[in-house]
Amino acid sequence: MKTTTKLVVLLLTASFIFSCSSDDSNEPEGQLPMVFNVDPLLYKQYDIDISPQFSNVQVYAWAVFTVQPTASQYTLTYTCETAPHLSFQITWQNGEPIPDPGAPPPNWIPGYELGIINGQYHIVILGSGCQSGIGGSCTVNGETPNLLESNLRDIQGTVEVRIDFE
């Protein structure tokens, strides 16, 4: 009987320890943040239309990524060690417009609303040919797109996106 009593006490103690260590608050645990890098030149894979009045403006880098409906906050960091003046970080809440310098001009992209295109993709403008230090011009002519893309690859800018959830 003595061994049985010790075993019962041991089991009760173990069950008490495990029951105390669990979270009984009935509060939902938040989803861990998503952090990933975006290739700033992969925007060409997306079917994104630009309004005709802006079609002559060369955007050399867009960060495009899928909308996360349950996200609470987005943070995008564009880091360019070889051209630090191009680096920036922006943060916005889900459902709010993307702040400058990442926001496209109004009416620039059909279906664009609050940083989202047609309810599918976030799009952040990382830079255009008008910005100094990258080369090229604001208008597309001849080799301008290829020159801008080549220069962007040369400066090796990286885009990190962090999506926080409630």
From TrEMBL:
<keyword id="KW-0732">Signal</keyword>
<feature type="signal peptide">
    <location>
        <begin position="1"/>
        <end position="22"/>
    </location>
</feature>
<protein>
    <recommendedName>
        <fullName>Lipoprotein</fullName>
    </recommendedName>
</protein>
